[in-house]
Design a protein that fits this description.
The chain has 52 residues and is of the alpha+beta class. The chain has one helix and two strands, in the order H-E-E. It is flat, with a radius of gyration of 18 Å.
Length: 52
């Protein structure tokens, strides 16, 4: 092993990916991901943008 301990996760890479905005392929706006619950109780993730 080297003298310097390594982190198991690359925290800076995770923070960068979290902060980078996901853009819609149709309109180019930022996509918001929300959890929707159907009347039957099934949960699903939905991407809200231009509703395409």
């Amino acid at each position: 092993m080297s003298g310097k301990a390594k982190s198991k996760t690359d925290v800076s890479a995770r923070a960068e990916s979290r902060n980078s905005a996901k853009l819609c392929s149709y309109c180019g706006n930022k996509v918001e991901v929300v959890m929707a619950v159907s009347p039957t109780g099934k949960k699903s993730m939905r991407r809200l943008c231009c509703e395409n």
